[in-house]
Amino acid sequence: MSTSSPIAKAISGLSRYGLVLALLVVFSIFTVAAPTFLTPGNLQSILVNNFTLLAIVSIAMTLSVSVGGIDLSVGTAVDFASFAFISVVLAGKPVALALLAALFAGALVGGFNSILISAIGVSPFLATLGTLFIGRSIQQLLTNGGNPVYLPPMGIPDAFRFLGHGSLGGLPVPLLIAALVMLGAGILLSRMRVGRVLLSIGIQPSVVRHSGIGLGPHIAVTFILAGMISAIAGIILTSTVTVYIPSSGNAFLLNAIGATFIGTTFSPLGRPNIAGTVLGVLLLSIVANGLLLTGLNFYWQQVATGTLIFAVLAFSFINRNTATA
Prior knowledge:
With 325 residues, the protein is an all-alpha fold. Helix content is 75%, strand content 2%. The chain contains 14 helices and four strands. The mean pLDDT is 90.
């Protein structure tokens, strides 16, 4: 089949926008199945409670995948940032200092990954998997076996609360922060030269190397940036619940991977992209919220989410193969 034929073009378009179609289908199903799904309060809950933190962590994951790797330690960066943030506030220091400490903690996780990957040559999968296990153990040691760290209700600074519960122009601050992260990452990958280099590293690293561009520094900076972006999620999480719970960041890991790879279906070439990742996060957030409203058992929710991820990826793969046949 010629790639220029109308049928091939239609299949190609269906492949790319299948994610949008899946969103519309899922949205329509839950609109009918759950009477409270379309209420303003529930739609806000989807964006604030389901979407925001997962979107930020998924952006970090997208950056690491863009260079041909993966970051299994994004949850560790979330946790380290959360611990640093709440510890500095508990010590009576300014919230601004706590923010810097949290970002540094995330960068530290990313920096450790960078040393393993860029300097030593460990594969991103094994390097970040090791960081995940090490990070989990460190958290257990720091908290005497995994005890949560609470902020006293009467000792929470207003600036701390604002990050998790404040609003600007009627919009929740966490959602605005997530929007800024998405915008910045989108500009980085699609509009800046360094973003094109990162994507090229993920596709043809040998070509990039022969062109005189250093792979190591670019990969190192990418994983450090992924750690710092994950730290932003840790900051928002801590300011929302006012407690640090060891290893809670790992709850975002699998969905972040799923959203990132679902998002690749939005690219004509199947590459990681911010717009696709955001749509993937939105799809998973709607599914999680809708299944909860319908009263489906939690374990069946996981089955449904996994099936949906598989269906979207398989649909895109089949359509692309058909279009190029």
